[in-house]
Amino acid sequence: MSRLSAGDLTRIKQEQKARQALKKDGYTTKVTVHMGTCGVAAGANAVMTALAEEIATSGRKDIFVTTSGCAGLCAREPLATIEVLDQPPVRYCDLNDQKMRDIFHGHIMAGIPVDKLALVRGSETTDLPSPEGQPPVTDSPSAAGTDEKPLIPTMQEIPFFRHQVLRVLRNKGVIDPESIDDYIARDGYQAAAKALTQMKPEDIVKVVKDSGLRGRGGAGFPTGMKWEFASKVPSDVKYMLCNGDEGDPGAFMDRSVMEADPHSVIEGMIIGAKAIGAHHGYIYVRAEYPLAVKRLQLAIDLATERGLLGKDILGTGFDFELSIYLGAGAFVCGEETALMRSLEGKRGMPRPRPPFPAHKGLWDKPSVLNNVETLAQIAPIILHGAPWYRTLGTEKSSGTKVFALTGAISNVGLVEIPMGIPLRRVIYDIGGGIKKKGRKFKAVQLGGPSGGCIPEAYLDTLVTYEDIVATGAIIGSGGMVVMDDTNCMVSTARFFLDFTTDESCGKCPPCRVGTKILLDILTGITEGKGTESDMETLEDLSRDIIATSLCGLGQTAPNPVLTTLRYFRHEYEDHIKHKWCKAGVCRNLTKFWIDEKLCKACGACLRACPAKAIVGEKKVPHKIIQELCVQCRTCYDTCKFNSIRILPAKFEGDPYELLGAEAAGVDATKGDA
Amino acid sequence: MAEGPRILIVDDELVVIKSAERVLKAEGYSVEGAVGGREAILKLEKGGYDLVFTDLKMPEVDGLTLIKWLKKTNPAVGIVIITGYPSQDTIKDALELGIIDYVPKPFTPSVLLDVTERAVEWIKGRKSKEEQTVEEFPPAMAVELDRVIAKYRDTPGSLIPVLQRAQEIVGYLPPVVQKRVAKGLNLSEAEVHGVVSFYSFFTMKPRGDHNIRICLGTACYVKGIEGVLEKVKENLKIGIGETTENRNFSLEGVRCLGACGLAPVMMVDQETYGALTPAKAIDVINSYYAAAAGREPALAGASPEEEE
Predict the structure, then answer these.
(1) Which of B195, B227, B261 is the closest to A406 by Cβ?
(2) Judged by CB atoms within 8 Å, which residues 608-637 of A form the interface with B?
């Protein structure tokens, strides 16, 4: 393949569009199977095989089959999208090979979409202006009135899709991540061409600064300023770096972007390199993301082959060499100075700043490190301008943010929202609320081990950097884990401290020793050894760790403790004073008991109990033999009638009195513990 | 070494041999003597000795010659020197030839016994280590490893990529591999070990044929990965960071595999398995056993431990 010049991009874009456009004498049908890591794990390969077999059997040559990365709605994988000439695309969910065969015969061969397997029709909302001057696409082509199948809802009718606006995920589920032409057909590399041919470094810096884009990796530092600092430092050698070491548990935005749209990251890096004057770059990726690594490498190879990376990019004389560096598993390497140490082949330990990496970074040369999602935002900003970017979001938190929505929520998936909408809309409208019937929302955890747990009362908080910080959590890299009332908040805090204790690099004692002491105290509380002074110790120590740690890991590690203490203090008190874990998670503080008035004697718990600790017969309410019970919670999760109740471990009194008083808000456990 | 190690005492003075024999035999060691290096070589050629105690200064065939000969012909035999001249130089020469220890002459029974005990422990340990090294580090691997080192030698900061490749080749990073990498990249062994021990991706223990990585991330935690982990541990009878005795599986706990949409999740080698229950996890593991045995994957819940 020959090297391209800036003009070739438009030609390739038109050719690729023409090649893939559905028309009577060409392809009449397009099938996209969404194959990100989650899709593949859910069985997308079998779906693809079934589809290929059916097409081969049918002998049809007018069906265009392609793949894409993650389509966003992980809870309903495998997903596939079918587009037939002159009809809106229809997305099918929860597929398997048989369903794919049914859909093939119904939708493709007979031309009738299979309502009962379909999820939605139309295209997802993006607000990218089309360069041809057409208004942005906001709804599906079906708005035109060819609506004969009202059984399949449109994107606008489903809250999960309606409240999202795709910028970073603009190519999600649409392009084949292994095809550079697909990316170019969606205006890919146009922004890089513009930056290299028409803009001076200071112009690029100004646009990014004006856009108000802030680092999406967690700290929220303005990206334009970072670039400005580095661009002003004179040096022959500078580095443009990408942080793909997504370490927060519960976050997978960067993986999805790298898997679904690797070129968008590369394009952002080319523009950044031009802005700061770097000619070398690295993408630091976790070794746990094999598919992302494979696709990024392929994307780099293709871009280099086409003259979009390497020497004399697009004939402009600008050089930029890019390579992938595999991380080796250390959470602290998400911190910029630590990541640079790791790139140098050393133990990834942070160092004090200043000097900032913009002056002395990798190999002591001026360096800029940006997160994957930040870089994927760059191309549209350059192409459409800062004022366009600011049409969404707030003054201080502009644009969109991608969140990985997981946990006890119905619509687990990857979502992109305009900044500044309330958390409640993300969780209830987009996320669909708590998945399990009869369970109540308890908290949403934002920002991973550096973040905090936000309770129901604060769900009207707006999703902006400032508002979330005011709650004690942080936006972080975008992990949003929803918890219901079967989660114990003390155990959750313990879980995060267990993580940070393990991942502390050990350089500075406040973090190394302090987190360990926090963990020990929390472990004590969950095991029933908590004392009244523990909560005060936790708070004091947390403040000391925050004040005296060297890097972001230690400075934020106590956040999960502080936020749970702030919003769920009563749970700590229940654990410490009453030896009662009301969620039934801490085994030493739990006694399961069957409420005979609610038990329907169905036998479900009896069969499920691994310890054979439940006795009962048909029509006879069941009973737990406490001596045999191992507090595994299986019965509690199995019972459909909520007849299994949780009492304090050593409780000997009348459960009805205790639970009745509990409901009435009276503290009946005094003296029992 | 079924009945304890066989020891040969070599000295040009019979009285030294006799006294050493007396001390060691009393403790149950099987001991023989050889007067001078020549007699020692004749005896050692027949084989069957595990440990040799030798004087250095002897007429005709001296101690250093004997040691050199022994290292060449029978390197598995452990060597301890007995010397009346424990000068730095002679001991250094002998140490470079790979002796275990030395006994100064004249010696007390307790000193001799101490040294003997340590030497016996040492050869026991080294034997198993040598067997392991031969098994885990065949020459083909060494060639491949050297090729990787040569490729990266001039690239700054290449230690982590080299170690990643080394772990792919050898399966894990025992000291022998770390030393080879250190030498090849012109780094100190301490620096290499520092990096190996810092990153969770690197392991100094051998892994099984299949590596199971259980995700301990938040989403998986919220969705009950702990139950899955317990069941897997119970089924394989190993803990996190361990390998089954038959080397089929090793178990690792990792920080978030980034597939939270499918929580709870585990990976076996490069395959991701989602929406796990304890029973489903066991099915997955069984399907690997079945594949190894050349059969179709086992039926759901066919684990013998599984009770309904």
Answers:
(1) B261
(2) 610, 632
Residues of B in contact with A328 (CB under 8 A): 160, 163-164, 195, 199-202
Q: Check whether A563 has a pLDDT greater than 90.
A: yes
Please report the DSSP string for A231-287 in residue order. Answer: HHS--S--EEEEEE---STT--HHHHHHHH-HHHHHHHHHHHHHHHT--EEEEEE-T
Banded pLDDT at B128 (limits 50, 70, 90): low
Instruction: Determine the Cα–Cα distance for residues B274 and A74; give it in Å rounded to an integer.
Output: 11
Please, what is the angle between helix A6-20 and helix A190-198, to 10°? 170
Q: Mean pLDDT across chain A, nearest whole number?
A: 90
User: Which domains occur in chain A, in start order?
Assistant: 20-123+125-149 (3.40.30.10), 180-389 (3.40.50.11540), 400-487 (3.10.20.600), 490-577 (1.20.1440.230), 587-664 (3.30.70.20)
> What single string gives the DSSP state of each residue in B172-233?
S--HHHHHHHHHHHT--HHHHHHHHHH-TT--SS---SEEEEEE-SHHHHHTTHHHHHHHHH
Q: Which residues of A touch B259 (CB under 8 A)?
A: 37-38, 41, 252
**pLDDT on residue A288:** 82
Per the CB < 8 Å rule, is A330 touching B199? yes
Give the contacts of A137 (CB within 8 A, at least 6 positions apart): A123, A125, A126, A130
B78-83: strand order across its sheet? B30-35, B6-11, B51-55, B78-83, B101-104
Helix, coil or strand: residue B171: coil
For residue B256, the model assigns a pLDDT of 78
Q: Taking CB atoms and an 8 Å limit, are B260 and A406 in contact across chains?
A: yes
User: Is residue A150 predicted with pLDDT exceeding 70?
Assistant: no
Find the mean pLDDT for residues A502-516: 94
A:B CB pairs within 8 Å: 151
Q: Are A69 and A259 in contact (CB under 8 A)?
A: yes
Name the minimum distance, in Å, from the CA of B243 to any CA of chain A. 20
Please tell me which of the candidates B157, B220, B270 has its beta carbon nearest to residue A344. B157
Lowest mean pLDDT among A327-336, B62-71, B96-105, B153-162: B96-105
Q: Specify the amino acid at residue B187.
A: L
- Please say whether the beta carbons of A283 and A296 come within 8 A: yes
Cα separation, A105 vs A85, in Å, equals 16
Mean pLDDT is lowest, of A94-103, A643-652, B92-101, B192-201, for B92-101
pTM: 0.80
Q: Does A342 touch chain B (CB under 8 A)?
A: yes
Give the nearest partner residue to B259 out of A37, A287, A344, using CB atoms. A37
Do residue A445 and residue B218 have CB atoms under 8 angstroms apart?
A: yes
Q: What is the pLDDT of residue B138?
A: 66
Average pLDDT over residues A573-599: 93
Whether the per-residue pLDDT at B307 is higher than 50: the answer is no
Do B198 and A347 make contact, defined as CB atoms within 8 angstroms? yes
Q: What is the phi/psi pair of residue B103, to 5°? A: -115, 120
Read off the tokens for A134. Answer: 């057409």
Is the Cβ pair B255, A250 closer than 8 Å?
no
Q: What is the ipTM of this complex?
A: 0.85
Interface test with A, best of B178, B256, B271, B303 (most A CBs within 10 A): B256
| CB-CB under 8 Å, A74 with B217 | no
Stretch B172-194: mean pLDDT, rounded?
A: 92
pLDDT of residue A663: 61
Asked if the C-beta of B199 comes within 8 angstroms of chain A's C-beta atoms, the answer is yes
Res A512 pLDDT > 80: yes
Task: Give the pLDDT of residue B242.
Answer: 87
Interchain contact A413–B (C-beta under 8 A)? yes
Task: State the pLDDT at residue A664.
Answer: 56
* Cβ atoms A350, A550 nearer than 8 A: yes
Q: What is the pLDDT of residue A341?
A: 95
